[in-house]
Design a protein that fits this description.
The complex is a heterodimer. By secondary structure, chain A is an alpha/beta fold. Chain A is about 50% helix and about 10% strand. Chain A has helices at about 1-25, 55-65, 85-95, 110-120, 140-145, 170-190, 205-210, 225-235, 255-275, 285-295, 300-320, 325-340, 345-355, 370-390, and strands at about 40-50, 70-80, 100-105, 125-130, 135, 155-160, 205, 235-250. Chain B has helices at about 5-15, 20-30, 50-65, and strands at about 70-75, 80-85, 90, 95, 100, 105-110, 115, 115-120, 125, 130-135, 140, 145-155, 160, 170, 175-180, 185-195, 220, 225-230, 235, 240, 245, 250-255, 255-260, 265, 270, 275, 280-285, 290, 295, 300, 305, 315-320, 320-325, 330-340. In chain B, about 10% of the residues lie in helices and about 40% in strands. Chain B has a 32-stranded mixed β-sheet that branches. The chains are: A alpha/beta, B mainly beta. At the A-B interface, helix 6, helix 7 and strand 8 of A face helix 2, strand 20, strand 32 and strand 34 of B.
């Protein structure tokens, strides 16, 4: 119980520190203001599985990019698609020689396997990755690419912004959540020289670094988290470019969101189980970076821990197992935690909303509490999946997030 | 259930629902449900202000033709009064609060006080002139102690007199020459030069940078608090230092230097790629930097230093202040988030 309380307190403090750091401290810039006529050659990878609804959009956006086309290679990864994705890619590759589709019809399906095959074909050292539903703006490739002038940067992450916010309550809440996650959480971790995370899309990495450990592991569903921690434990840094913003399509139905989050939690837990013991031994991380990394690794454990903690408190209270004076202390602790701890992520979202110029939409903030309960269910399911994977040595299957664009 | 219990239950549920009420209103009648604005056509252009202004005023020049001056509202939404002149002549001490557009050149007398100015030819301004903003297609000369509140941009070459204040940005399609004592935030020129620098002629070019392939093996990591490299050293790789680094005179670094502490370069150091620093950068002088200089602190660039090279552009970016000494050449951009100055 005490351990649980300390862990929860650490997370609460972490959220509050990040919020204050983002709101009040001088922010660390990324490299977007660097203009350089010698742009590094870039390979852009776009994993696709049945993406005929969105393939046009991402390719058209990348063609409009102001990045020099003689230094740009685009490899859309047609991963066992059964719809019209392949035809769309063929059309683009016929018109634009720098678009070189990879059609995968054999081998396991899934993002890590697709990325591995594409890395073998990629011509350049700097790799950027976009999901198929993303719409990069004209200068986004340059903004991300410039981070690699820093010889310590092994990966870079941009900011994801939901495009379909008006679709309903879920997309509006997801926008708030994303805003808090990027505008405050990632930026503050970058400013404080902690461990910002590579998110698998709107980001990039050095090909040679990923190949140095054998590429992506197809058994890991969160290949982005895996890459993040492998980078840090080998001395590389992840840069966060807050102004490198890109639209994505957020899930519009609760069941799609549930499956997405369950997959994330499952993949994240897989990584946690692999990296938990390696992190403290890394000679490249400072103690506070190690602490932040450990807290980041365990972030998906928070919802089940919180729920079990609340349930335990309730049971103790109702069964009369707590003496009167301890009840008072416990009540005070619970009220304090609820005010400053449990709601710390909400402060983070509120600060992000204000920084992003949101006004009316912040009125939806209390609804996040209910989404948190829903998320807890999905996350707990994902953690159970990961533990079963481990116990049964089961190979997880890739569950692609459904698209909603017509 | 008793009445008291019912009232208590209703009050409890009401209190629970209370924080949600504004949200329900927002859901019922959305007032703020559009995505965060991202301009899909955004592109980094250091002359953005001047180019946007040209797009705004050029349509006004065509119908006006030779019939100048022709004051009229700019448009119904933004009724900015303007005047179109063939050649703009502003006498000393004149105050002209309207937007001035010139089809030919412009001569502006000392101590004039002007709003936005667009000139389709060369501009020559006297001393102590104040502009809101200034765009020119021809060569631009500002006298001593001129003040630009917003920005100044020319398609060709700009000579900025000593002691000028250059607002948010000063940019030139070709060379940008700065007099001593100028203060600025953002500069762009090919090259930017300070007094006595012979732009693009006398200084030998730095070796080309090394974009592209960089693997783990390229990097030398120094985990100590301080690293001092001796004079005349040649280092063939990138260098990462967790503390401060001091590079001895005449050393040659073939890659990038990244330091978590301050970077100090002694006289005549050559860095073929970038200088990246979590603190201050001090370049003693006579240095040649082939790549970019990025600092999360102040940057001091000593006399005779060249950054970037002809036929290309690089950036000097500091979250703190930038000081340019005399005889400095920067091919490309200088950004000083907390202001910069020419010594």
């Amino acid at each position: 119980m005490v351990v649980l309380a300390v862990v929860m307190l650490l997370y609460a403090i972490r959220h509050l520190v990040l919020t204050v750091a983002r709101a009040a401290a001088r922010q660390r810039p990324c490299y977007q203001d660097v203009l350089d006529s010698e742009c590094p050659p870039i390979t852009v990878l776009i994993p696709m599985h049945n993406e005929e609804a969105v393939a046009d959009g991402v390719l058209a956006a990348l063609i409009r990019s102001d990045y020099p086309k003689d230094k740009l290679e685009i490899i859309p990864i047609d991963d066992h698609s059964q719809d019209g994705t392949a035809e769309i890619l063929q059309r683009y590759s016929a018109a634009y020689p720098f678009i070189k589709p990879l059609h995968r019809r054999a081998g396991p399906r899934g993002k890590p396997s697709g990325l591995n095959d594409a890395l073998a074909l990629a011509s350049h050292e700097i790799i950027l990755v976009f999901d198929a539903d993303y719409q990069p703006s004209r200068d986004l490739v340059r903004e991300l690419a410039m981070a690699f002038i820093d010889p310590e940067v092994g990966a870079v992450m941009g900011r994801v912004v939901p495009k379909n916010t008006a679709a309903g309550l879920l997309t509006r809440l997801l926008e708030l959540e994303r805003s808090g996650g990027y505008q405050v959480d990632q930026q503050a971790r970058y400013t404080l020289d902690l461990v910002p995370q590579y998110g698998g899309t709107v980001g990039g990495f050095r090909r040679s670094v990923v190949l140095s450990w054998g590429g992506f592991d197809p058994r890991v569903l969160a290949e982005d988290t895996d890459l993040t921690f492998r980078m840090y434990t080998r001395g590389w840094k992840v840069a966060y470019a807050n102004r490198a913003e890109c639209y994505e399509e957020a899930p519009e139905t609760w069941d799609v969101r549930f499956r997405q989050l369950r997959r994330w939690a499952r993949g994240h837990t897989q990584v946690m189980l692999r990296q938990w013991l390696l992190l403290p031994r890394s000679p490249y991380l400072s103690p506070r970076q190690k602490l932040d990394a450990m807290l980041l690794l365990g972030i998906y454990l928070v919802p089940p821990l919180l729920m079990s903690g609340l349930a335990a408190s309730l049971i103790l209270f109702l069964t009369g197992s707590i003496p009167a004076w301890e009840t008072i202390v416990l009540s005070f602790a619970m009220v304090s935690y609820n005010a400053f701890g449990n709601f710390a992520p909400f402060y983070q979202v509120a600060a992000a909303g204000l920084l992003d110029g949101m006004r009316e939409r912040l009125q939806l903030l209390p609804f996040l509490f209910f989404m948190y309960l829903y998320n807890s269910w999905a996350v707990t399911s994902g953690i159970v999946d990961a533990l079963v994977d481990l116990g049964q040595k089961r190979m997880p299957t890739w569950d692609k997030t459904k698209r909603f664009r017509q | 259930m008793s009445l008291e219990a019912l009232v208590l239950l209703v009050a409890f549920l009401g209190l629970l629902a209370l924080p949600l009420m504004p949200g329900f209103r927002e859901l019922w009648r959305p007032r703020d449900n559009q995505p965060i604005d991202i301009d899909p056509n955004a592109t980094a252009n250091p002359r953005e202000a001047g180019l946007s202004f040209r797009q705004l005023v050029r349509p006004l020049l065509a119908p006006a033709g030779a019939a100048a001056p022709a004051p009229s509202p700019l448009d119904a939404a933004r009724p900015t009064p303007y005047e179109v002149h063939q050649d703009l002549r502003v006498p000393p001490d004149a105050r002209r609060p309207v937007r001035l557009l010139a089809l030919g050149g412009a001569e502006i007398g000392d101590r004039a006080d002007l709003a936005d100015v667009y000139v389709d030819g060369p501009v020559r301004a006297g001393a102590d002139v104040r502009f809101s903003a200034l765009a020119a297609e021809g060569d631009l000369t500002l006298g001593a102690r001129c003040v630009v509140e917003e920005w100044v941009d020319t398609e060709t070459t700009a000579w900025i007199g000593p002691g000028c204040e250059l607002g948010r940005s000063a940019s030139a399609g070709r060379e940008l020459h700065l007099g001593a004592g100028c203060v600025f935030r953002r500069l762009w020129g090919l090259p930017i030069s300070t007094e006595t620098a012979a732009a693009g002629e006398a200084m030998p070019e730095a070796a080309p940078g090394r974009p592209g392939l960089r693997t783990i093996d390229d990097v030398v990591v120094w985990a100590g608090r301080r690293l001092t490299l001796p004079a005349g050293l040649v280092l063939e790789r990138d260098l990462v230092v967790y503390g401060e680094v001091e590079v001895g005179a005449g050393s040659v670094i073939r890659g990038t230097i990244k330091a978590h502490g301050a970077i100090q370069l002694a006289e005549g150091v050559q860095v073929d790629a970038n200088l990246i620093c979590r603190r201050d950068v001090r370049i003693a002088g006579g240095a040649r930097i082939g790549g970019n200089v990025v600092a999360e602190g102040d940057v001091f660039i000593g006399p005779g230093t060249q950054i970037g090279q002809k036929d290309g552009f690089k950036s000097v970016y500091a979250t703190g202040r930038v000081t340019l000494s005399a005889d400095v050449l920067v091919f490309g951009r200088v950004v000083a988030e907390r202001g910069g100055s020419v010594a």
